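#onboarding

Welcome to the new folks! Below is a worked example of what a typical request in this channel looks like: someone posts a single protein sequence, and someone else replies with the predicted structure as tokens. Don't worry about understanding the tokens yet, we'll cover that in week two.

Example request:
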Amino acid sequence: MIHRPRRLRRNPALRALVRETRLTPDNFVLPLFACPGEGVRREISSMPGVFNLSVDEIANEASAAYDAGVRSIILFGLPESKDELASGAYAEDGIVQRAIRAVRRSSPELIIIADTCLCEYTSHGHCGVVRGGDVLNDESLELIARTAASQAEAGADIVAPSAMMDGQVGAIREALDDSGFENTAIMSYAVKYASGFYGPFREAAQSTPEFGDRRAYQMDPPNAREAMREAELDFSEGADILMVKPATVYLDVLKMVRDRFDLPLAAYHVSGEYALIKAAAQKGWIDEERVMMETLTSIKRAGADIILTYYAREAIAALNASAIS
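Example response:
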């Protein structure tokens, strides 16, 4: 017998009929960056099409994104001032807290995720309390937990701890429950590598460390088995969703986490991954939409239920256009 797999590739309808991996608009989370001011819409030079937005513009952008089919956003903040203890991260009138309230008013049905970290708010740019040049793990947990509770109080549906401090999920779960936010979910950046792909984000969030780097607490890229331990710890501490970051260069790790854990799994298609596609497309070297969709499909195929991507709106538009055609 001669097997002819090409029989099922002959036309678009047949290919769609037997397609194994399907992206849907519900898969995507759109990152947004809140900054001080009013009427501010400042494009990030290394991330064409992505902007720093004042709170009023964040509300407008979130509303437009919802109308375009986006159902979830994640908010990052650029405070007016920074200090050693990241007080802007957990202030009642902090930039993300104000953005959450504004988005809740403008788009009440949108899922709001708050990035729960300190690096954008510390004067030194690290993700916790620094003393003697070291980032102190346990002293940082209190501030991270306060930040999560403050974000939940403002109306976040999900908090997303990204500092890679040991025990942060447990500390946040306890703080949320003690504050009456037992229904606020935790999406943990469980497996976050010390990656060179974060460069454009650091411009967007103005969070480049003042000294050293984050390799002492983010994961070493060659390690995969260690990722399973990190995910297991966050699972045991009460995480509701696990995340792998970055996405495309860690698809093997994403698959390992998918095979090991039954929790919903997210992957962050990060700023550098986005910028590479944008830059090549602007040079005319690739078909941007085709490469975008191929990349996002690879993330879904590796096991992600949720994809955080700056391409969320464009991907949904492409899916809708494909459905119409």
